[in-house]
Amino acid sequence: MEKLQVKDKTFAISIPEAEIQKQVRRVAAEIVRDLEGKHPLFLPVLNGAFIFAADLLREVNIPCEVSFIKLASYQGTQSTGEIREVIGLQADITGRHIVIVEDIIDSGLTMAHMLETLQAHNPASISVCALLVKPGALKVEIPIHYKCMEIPNDFIVGYGLDYDGDGRNTRDIYTLVKDPELFSE
Ligand code: 5GP
Ligand code: MG
Fold first, then answer.
1. CB distance 151 to 134 below 8 Å
2. Is residue 160 assigned to a domain?
3. Which terminal Cβ of the chain has fewer Cβ within 10 Å, N or C?
4. Is residue 99 included in any domain, yes or no?
């Protein structure tokens, strides 16, 4: 099996490029079916969603707009811990049909916060489009309208997703090997 070394960690291929592309095309067709004629505004979340968004949007062959957003994390001064603020929202989303394009939904807390923030701008609708979802890790209920694939509670890299900043530039998706000593080629 193909493996990937990212800094001090070993990863093994878990979702090959062909499978990713197949699921991306399926989801793109669902989006076209639902949003054709609505001139949707896609909001990919940087950095992780950049490759997914590039592939997805080339399959969404209807008039639409794209504007990237980012989450800025900082430690709150209160006991609330980490605060994640949505930055870079340049387009006026009021009355628009929004599609948030996210790499992976784990606990769902990030997406819940994002939905709350964007909802305050009164868009016509908001859909969530995720490349990956870890159903076993979800801590809050969030609507996930478009989902390419579900994965177990493992740490993955590749196809836009990083480990400590590295590993985003692969065509396949890789899963962390917990015990590399037991890894066989
Ligand atoms: P959540 O708020 O849903 O727990 O966290 C979502 C964010 O955590 C994702 O946007 C991503 O940045 C990061 N994340 C969650 N699981 C993974 C994973 O398996 N690999 C990588 N690289 N990032 C992950
Ligand atoms: Mg992300």
1. yes
2. no
3. C
4. yes
Residue 181 placed within a domain = no
Look at strands 41-46 and 97-105 and give their pairing.
Answer: parallel
Compute the 3-state secondary structure of the chain and give helix, strand, coil in percent, each to the nearest 5. Answer: 25, 35, 40
Q: Is the CB of 176 under 6 A from ligand 1?
A: no
Tokens 């890299």 label which residue?
157
pLDDT of residue 83: 64
In the structure encoding, which two tokens stand for residue 164, read together?
Answer: 């400590």
Q: Which ligand is nearest to the CA of 48?
A: 2
Q: Check if 34 is active-site.
A: no
Within 13 Å, how many C-alpha atoms sit on residue 25's CB side?
6
In the chain, the number of structural domains is 1
Residue 99 CA to its chain's centroid (Å): 12
Query: Which residue range forms the structural domain that includes residue 63?
Result: 18-153
CATH for 133: 3.40.50.2020
The residue-averaged pLDDT of 35-43 equals 98
Q: Looking at the chain, which runs of residues are DSSP E strands?
A: 3-6, 9-15, 41-46, 65-66, 69-75, 82-87, 97-105, 125-133, 146-150, 156-157, 173-176
CA of 45 to the centre of ligand 2 (A): 6
Q: 133 pLDDT band (50/70/90 cuts)?
A: very high
